[in-house]
Each structure stands twice: as C-alpha cells, then as structure tokens.
Amino acid sequence: VENVRLLDRLSSRKAALGTLYLTATHVIFVENVSETRKETWVLHSQISSIEKQATTATGCPLLIRCKNFQVIQLVIPQERDCHDVYISLIRLARPVKYEELYCFSFNPKLDKEEREQGWKLVDLNEEYNRMGIPNNYWQISDINRDYGVCDSYPTELYVPKSATAHIIVGSSKFRSRRRFPALSYYCKDNNASICRSSQPLSGFSARCLEDEQMLQAIRKANPGSDFIYVVDTRPKLNAMANRAAGKGYENEDNYSNIKFQFIGIENIHVMRSSLQKMLEVCELKSPSMSDFLWGLENSGWLKHIKAIMDAGIFIAKAVAEEGVSVLVHCSDGWDRTAQVCSVASLLLDPYYRTMKGFMVLVEKDWVSFGHKFNHRYGNLDGDPKEISPVMDQFIECVWQLMEQFPCAFEFNERFLIHIQHHIYSCQFGNFLCNSQKERRELKIQERTYSLWAHLWKNRANYLNPLYRSDHGQTQGTLRPQMAPCNFLYKFWSGMYNRFEKGLHPRQSVTDYLMAVKEETQQLEEELEVLGERLANLQKSQLNDDKVKSKQQDRSKQLGLSTSDNSLANTPQEYSNDLKSFPSRSPSQGDEEDSALILTQDNLKSSDPDLSANSDQESGVEDLSCRSPSGGGCLPSEDSGKDSDEAVYLAV
Amino acid sequence: MEFAELIKTPRADNVVLHRPFYLAVEGTLCLTGHHLIFSSRRQDNAEELWLLHSNIDSIEKRFVGSLGTIIIKCKDLRIIQLDIPGMEECLNIASSIEALSTLDSVTLMYPFFYRPMFEIVEDGWRSFLPDQEFELLSSVTDEWRLSCINKEFSVCPSYPPVVVVPKSIDDEALRKVAMFRYGSRFPVLSYYHKKNGMVMMRSSQPLTGTNGRRCKEDEKLINATLRPGKRGYIIDTRSLNVAQQARAKGGGFEQEAHYPQWRRIHKCIERFNILQESLIKLVEACNDQSHNMDRWLSKLEASNWLTHIKEILTAACLAAQCIDREGASVLVHGTEGTDSTLQVTSLAQIILDPRCRTIRGFESLVVREWLQAGHPFQQRCAQSAYSNSKQKWEAPVFLLFLDCVWQILRQFPCSFEFNEQFLIMLFEHAYASQFGTFLGNNENERSKLKLPQKTMSLWSWVNRSEELSKFQNPLFEANSLVIWPSVAPQSLQLWEGVFLRWNRPSKFLDEAHEEMINIIKYNKELQAKVNALRRQLAEMETDDRMQENL
C-alpha cells in the first residue's frame, strides 16, 4: 500500500510518508525519503493488538500495539486498503499452528552442525554437575522419562536420594498437575537447596503420606538443618480459596519440621491488568508529572515487582544465611514459582549473573520446568486470559538488581531487552510451546535455531563494561535492601518506552565505556607489538654498534624522556590516533571488516526489527560521538529538536 | 558577644552517635563557637564528625530517665542522633546548639572566623570579574557596552555595580527605565548567542499598574536588542492570571500595543512557600521509615517537586529554542526577576553554551546569573527541609536549579566537565559554608560586609587541582553542540544523590563509579605508553636510517 503515513506519537506534525508492505512474516514500512529510505520492520508475532479507528479527512488510521511495547500509528489513505490490511494482520498476528511461526522459516545460513552446536550451548546436566550434583544426598531420577508421571516436567529431574519411586509417584498424585517437588538449586557450601512443586491437593483435611515423606527427604538431604521452609508465593486468601476446590497448602501439623510462609504475589490476571494500566500511562500524550506518577502508582506494577523481589530475597537469605532448604510453590508451580526460584538463584550464585549462566538459569527454571510460553505470550491464537507478563517481570527484576549492583552482572540492559523481544518474536525455537514434551514432539531442535547461540555470537554487544569477575560486588550472595525501600524500584523506561528514543538519555555511559574498553584492548595489543619491535630494533642496534660512545646514549635517553612528557601533555595528538584505530593494522583490519560484515548480515536476516530500531546503530552513533571533532552528535541534536519543540511549546 | 556565653557544657563524654547504615559509635562530644565535634577514639576506627552549627536546620530532644537524646536534622538533609548521658548536660548542649545554629548577625558566621589551611593559588573573589566577561563579549560584537550606572548601588540595590546594556541606550535612559521596573531591575544582557547573534535579557516586571502605564525608554531599550524586521519573545515566568493580578499592586506585563515586535509567552513557575512546602514534603516522603511504603509514588507525586522541575526545565528549553531555533531574542522576567527568572536564564545557557558545561564556565555562570544578579541567597537558604519556623522568604530556588542541571547531566552524561558531586557540593555550600561566597543577598550587601577582604571565596578552595579532581567527570568529551533535554515525565527522575543520599547504602554505586574512573584512567595510561613507544620507535628507525646512510 502506497502513500501511507507513519505518525510520530509525540508530535503529530512529524509524520513520515512511505509504503507499507505485508510479507508472510513481517509488516514493513519504507519511508519515501530517497536518501535514507528508513525502514521499520515489525514481526507479525510481535503484534499484540490492532485497532482500526474512525476514518478522518486524511485517511483511515490504524493503531498497532506490539508485545515489545512498540506502538505504531499508520494512516492509510483508502478505507478499503485499510480494511484489507486490518483483516490480513488480524489473521497473520494470530497463527493457529506452530508451523506458521517465524522460526520455522527463519534461516540464519548456518549448517546443520552449527545448529546442533548452538543447541548444545546450554546443557542442564552440566549445570547440575556444576552445582555438585549428583552427590551423597541428591540423584538424577528417570522416573519421568516418558513424561509418564508429569507431562509438563522434563525427563530428567533431580530428587533426594532417599526419595524412592514409590514416594515420588505418591507425592505427584497429591500435587496439582502432578508437579511433585524437584530440585531447582543446590548450594554446595552448606547443602541447603531450593526445590519447587505445585500446590498440594490438601483441600480442608486431606493428607498424603508419600508427600510428607517427600518433604522429609528434602529436609534430610540437608543434614545441617532440622527444618525446611515451605514458601507459598500466593496471597493467603487465594490459597485458602483453593482449598474449596480440593487444592490448597501444607498444614504444618501434618508435615513434621516445616515452617510455612505465604509471600503474597498476585496471580497472572492481576499482573496482566497491571501491565495494561502501566502501558496506558506510557502511551499518554504529553502527560503531566502528576498524571504519570499517579498512573504508575495506580497500576501497581512496581509493587508487584517488589513482591517478587522480596520473595526471592527471603529464599536467598534462608539458603545463604540460615542454611535452610526451601520448597517453593504457587498454584501450578510454573509462573510465580519460576519467578521466585530464578530471582533467588540469581541472588545466590554469581554464575547466573554471567551471560552464559543467565542463559542456563532461564533454560533451567523456565524452559525445562514447563513455563507455558505459548499460553503466556500468546504465540499461537489462544485464550487471552492465559496471557500474562510473567517472564517480563522476571526480566525487570534482573534490571532492578542491575541498577542497585552496577558491577555485579556480566551482561547489560540490551541483553535483557533482546531476550524479552525474542520471547515474543518466535524467531528462535527456545521459547516455543508449553513444555519440553511438546517441543520434543515438534522436533524443535532439528527444525529451528537456538537464541542462545545467536546472543552468544554477538556477546560483545551485551557486555557490561563495569563487570569484573574479580570485583568484590561480583562475589557471593547479593543482598539488596529490604523494606522500606520502595524508592529503590524505578520505572524502566528503557523497556516500556523502548521505542521512544527521545525520552532516553542521549548519551549512553555503557556504550561509551564499551568503546573505551575496546580501544584499550587494541592499545594493549599494539603495545605488545611495539614492545617487540622495539626490543628487536634495540638488539640489532646493540649488535651493530657496541662501540657507541656512552655520551651519545645518555643524550638519547634524555631526549626520549622529554618526548615522553610532551606526549603525555598533548591530548590533541591522541584524537588523531583515535581515528586510525578502527581499521588499525592492515592484516588484522581485513579480518575485522569481514567479521563486521558477517554480523551485519546476520542482523539483517535474523533481527531486522531490532536493527531497524537501531539498538546496534546507537552503539555506532555513540562511538562516533567520542571523537570530539566528529559530527556524530548531530543526530541527537536533530532528533531532540522536533520532538521536543512540541513538548516545550505546549502551553 | 562571646560564644562562650552560649556554651554552658562544652564537652560531654560517653555520647553515642547513631546514623543510618552505620553502627552506633561511642565518643566525646565537643561544642565550639561554630562546630559540633564528635570524636571516637576506638582503636579500630577512630573517627571525627565535624558539623557546622549553621548546617543545623532543626533539633529535637527526648528523655528516657536520665539519658537524653538529641536528634539533629541538617540543611544538607542528613539526620543524626546523639545519646547524651545526664539530663543537665543534654539540656545545656541542646540549648547551645539551638542558639548557635540560629545566630542573627551575619558577621558572627563562621566564614568571618575561618582561616584556610591550604595555600591560596588564586583569589576566588577575583576569578570572575565582569570586565573579563565583557572582554569576551566585545570580541564578537560591539553592540553592547558596560555601564557603571550602578556604581554606588544607587540605581538598583540588587544589581552589581556594572551591567551590560545596549550601546545605543545611555545612562540617562537607563535611569528612567529603572523607574519603570520593579526594584529598579531594568533589562540587562544575560547571554549572547554567538552562533546567530541573538540575545537573552532579564529584568523584573514592568510597573504598568491598572491604568497601563508605559515607558518609551523601556520600549526603546528592549527594541534596541532586535535586528531590523525581527521579532522577539518575552517569557513571563508567571501564569497570565498571576501577571494580570500583579497589575493591581502596581506591577504588570508588557502590553502588545506598546511592544508590537514582541510576543509574550506565559510559563508558570512557582515561587516561595509553594516551593518550600514542596521540598518539605519531598524530604518527608524520602525519610519515611515506616514499613508500609507502598504509597511512595503518590507521596512523591504529592510533593510536586518533579512537577516544578519539569516546569522550570520546559521554560528554559523554550527560551533556548526561541534563541537557537527561531532566531529570536528573548527577554525573561517574573515578578522581582531574582528567582524563577534566573532559573530560566541560567538553564537556557547550559543548554545553549558548551562553556557553561565546563567547571570554570559553570562557576562563572553561578557568579553572573545568581550571585551578581542578586538572588537573595541569605533569605532563600536560611532554612531547609526540616525547619519548623514558617518564615516567608525561604525557598529552594537554587536547589531546584541544581536539580535541573543534574537532570540534563543525566541525559547527557558525556557533555559535562563536572560530575554530580560538584552540584551536591554547591548545594551544601549555598546552605552552610566556611566560605563567604553565598553570604548576603546581593553584591551591595556583600560589599558592605567587606566579604572579599574578610572571608575566603569558595572558588579559591574549589579551583585547586586537589579539589578539582573530585569534581571532574571522567566521561567528559567536549561537545560544542546545543543539547536538548527531554522534559517528558519518563525522562525526569528523583535526584537520589541529594534526596536519598543519607537513606540508601551507596557502596555499590560508589564502586561502580570507581570502576568507571579506573577503566578510563587505564585507557589514558595505555595511550600515553603507546604514543611514547611509537615516538621512540620512530626515532630509532630514523637513527638507523641515518646510520645506514652514513
């Protein structure tokens, strides 16, 4: 469709005229401006809602809201065209079969072996080995090898050694959807562990001997402690209501040596409407400070984030400081339980705060334990009541921690944003389906690619320049402030207003420091090369003229030391050097260039929507900002100009 | 008066000091004429706390048996608690602190007694003289002149002795204009935009009154700043309503009929007690220690602090936009022209002029647009967020300005030579200081107090390399462009460095800052090494070649 206008949300005056294309996988808008032909790509799977608004004199407006918080406003001149686009998008945005999803057609030009390597990047058995398992207390169980006990659990599970098959099966029958207690995290240092399950089918008075034995077995696997915590992450009222349906929570009288605790995280429906309310605030046109703060408070979003964090902090404290094992559950044990277990693990173990470790953590607590990605993120057309930003909340918890502990994480904000993007994009197979069983049936690993391999290949983009593995902040358990500390939880505009670049800091400290570090690395290499050359030269000179008079030598040294000083005092010269750095020595330069082309190529094919909204670009932009003479800052000035004008002038 | 009269108990032992995030410490408390000194001589961590009496905003006392407790709330927003054994000692100390922290006479303040322990490299009182500023200006334009009309502070008591005015307007005309402006604050040059020759002027409101008085000289003066055929903007920092009401009291605003070449824009920036109450509420919210904190955001909202930030920044951006984008000259005023006017003119310069984003340039801006321009620091900063007395003149006008600068700094972290600490330091010294810089309400009072002769300037202390290094931003790369901040609510944040400074552990953030400095320092060292080696190699190679040639 031609002559479509893409409106800027902040100023109605700034609209781009262009052509709209619909492909099998993307909506593409190409601006008419001939020099730039700026492109906006949106994956169909990212579309969360499409709204056709009343036709005006200028045309028919179409509002597209995306799951990655992009909002696109189009005006299509012909009502009929608009209707066609609307109908097509509704169909395209709601696929009914997995095969329609982008990951089955997406091809990053990797051969079969590379694809397999990619899937092997994260290996959970290796991870349990890293934790020190199997050992005297814990063993791997194959009781679920054909998904015979629980179809939403993985085939390989870790359970206490003393838990026999009889106990496990008995316990599974007493738990919602047969999700019996299994190991999530084990702390080598003190044998304390985090286990997870669903709620018990206790009703008002039912009990189950095997389930009681199961909890007993978990306690015995930690000889240092004579009780375990059972953490129910739901509000007490919800848990009590569940008893009427024959479900509920553990009765302290029936289980010996447990301490029972409610945490009070709301359910998926509350979270969905909370996000909805917050996004409405983000979408307000020129809101006042009061509108914004009131809206944010009323959405309750940050309160919910804090509740999840508090639960994680409680568990991490029990494990690290008290040395007590914890069993965590909610209702089904695949939403709040996943959030809380993974936040606690992240606090406890520095490994999960590395890039690789974070991938492992997501794979362990979310993917393998059957978080229902398909239902929660609406990949296939389904029940809208099942949709909820469960994983988004976890990702935000990580960001909030990064704000409080800036040196503790190996990865940066961009890493989190890209993972969030791909939870919805369906471009990679990792987050498809609702369980391991479904993924195996679909042969995901043979037919799609792994996101982790893609992120790992581009890991240079995702590094936190402030991270140092030997830094004090990196070690051991993170101990965030507990209440009262609501002011520590902040609105994440980098995520929820991600596509409104005008709202964000115009210069990125992270990108700046990353550029400095990259340059430092090149300098180190150059220093080595220069040092070698110098040594060689000196050697040859020594051989050449050993008879050189001492006086000459001394004068030379003097000359050198002064030149050294003068260099240190003239920063001007450095900036000239600076420019030559990117394409430094010719031999290496070629390699680098080709590597660059490769990644760009990948980006184009794999991440069109990401590259189009210039997450990569901004890095480049800021790099050029570094050279004082370069006009690299101009974009910031220009982009600042128009959008802000409207804001300032609004009287 | 002798301070000794006020100090009945100069020393108390076994006093316990409580601070958030620190373990309680036992030690000795001493009172001097200007300081409260707490020292603990514990072997493992001997430490001393020196607190200026003038930094104390309010003091509360409590008794449990014979153990007295004093809670001291400071103007820099810190709160400390001292447990003092002995009821009489405690009462004596509390009453001494109360008396010493509320001395009436300026000349009893610490700056008049302070003797610097550092070597004075440069006298800060002479660092930013108007003549030097004017020299810079006259190198780019000859349309302006320095007028000494106010030499004896005879025309305008709150203006400095010399001001910059259009060349075509003589002193006689200025005198007439002064009669037509509130407090005699006639329009003077605030900023000259080299890029296009547009200017920003500031003044107070015109005294039009209800019957629409006019003043030909005033019209002539401000028209003299316009290029032929060009229009200008008057930014009135009051709402139209407030400006209209001002006419009843003899004030008012420029009528379109008399100023046809000017377009007036009203921007509402609050003043006085509204700002002071906003600060009090904000600090209350930040200090709320109750465990039920889930109304934090609505408390933040109710304080309106960020709303004020947004209003001030928006007005400043508008002024900058008129000058840089519209190519128009601007006149800014509110009522007196000593508060919101200065916020707008100084912030607009930060946006437009890269020089104001350097340390030296920012100091010069504070001197020109705040001290010399007659912002009544002594009145405005007499009390801070914990004061109980309801005096009329206090208002965190300067703190709001610093907060706005911090907001821009946060959005352009690489464009400022100074860091957040620099801004916090200025906030502290504006409220309590050993230096004379922020004493008095204008240059007139400062000259009567003989501050340059009798006290030390803050700039003498700051501009030494030892101190400067603490205030330098490691990320700074000179950016010669205009920087346009975003004023959307999503882009404005609470200034944690000031408002949560004492209520949150800052260890991890400090570590991050240190790491940042190290990364950049290491990079610079390597650059120096590589360059040295290159030079050395080049020399050796030429030597080689020369020898070969020989």
TrEMBL record, chain A:
**Can you quote a single GO CC term?**
endomembrane system
Listed name of the protein? Myotubularin-related protein 7
Q: How does it sit in the membrane?
A: Peripheral membrane protein
**Extent of Polar residues compositional bias:** 558-588
Record key words, sorted: Coiled coil, Cytoplasm, Hydrolase, Lipid metabolism
Checking SMART domains in the record gives: PTPc_motif (SM00404)
Bias kind Basic and acidic residues: ranges: 542-556
Q: Does the keyword Translocase apply?
A: no
One record GO biological process:
phosphatidylinositol dephosphorylation
Q: Which residues form the Myotubularin phosphatase domain?
A: 118-496
Compartment list = Cytoplasm; Endomembrane system
Residues at which substrate binds: 267-268, 330-336
According to the entry, every stretch annotated as the Tyrosine specific protein phosphatases domain falls at 299-343
Which InterPro entries does its entry note?
MTMR7_PTP (IPR030572), Myotubularin (IPR030564), Myotubularin-like_Pase_dom (IPR010569), PH-GRAM_MTMR6-9 (IPR048994), PH-like_dom_sf (IPR011993), Prot-tyrosine_phosphatase-like (IPR029021), Tyr_Pase_AS (IPR016130), Tyr_Pase_cat (IPR003595)
Species: Eudyptes sclateri
Note down the stretches annotated as region Disordered.
541-651
Q: Which residues form a coiled coil?
A: 513-540
Automatic annotation (TrEMBL), chain B:
Regarding protein family, the annotation reads: Belongs to the protein-tyrosine phosphatase family. Non-receptor class myotubularin subfamily.
The UniProt entry lists membrane topology as: Peripheral membrane protein
* UniProtKB keywords: Acetylation, Cell membrane, Cell projection, Coiled coil, Cytoplasm, Endoplasmic reticulum, Membrane
Q: What is this protein called?
A: Myotubularin-related protein 9
Q: Which CDD domains match?
A: PH-GRAM_MTMR9, PTP-MTMR9
Q: Which GO terms describe its cellular component?
A: cytosol; endoplasmic reticulum; perinuclear region of cytoplasm; ruffle membrane
Myotubularin phosphatase domain location, by residue?
A: 124-499
Instruction: State the species of origin.
Output: Eudyptes sclateri (Erect-crested penguin)
PROSITE patterns, per database record: PPASE_MYOTUBULARIN
Q: Which GO terms describe its biological process?
A: negative regulation of autophagy; phosphatidylinositol dephosphorylation
Q: Where in the cell is it found?
A: Cell projection, Ruffle membrane; Cytoplasm, Perinuclear region; Endoplasmic reticulum
Which GO terms fall under molecular function for this chain's record? protein phosphatase binding
**Main localisation, per the record?**
membrane
- Entry-linked Pfam families: Myotub-related, PH-GRAM_MTMR6-like
InterPro entries recorded: Myotubularin, Myotubularin-like_Pase_dom, PH-GRAM_MTMR6-9, PH-like_dom_sf, Prot-tyrosine_phosphatase-like
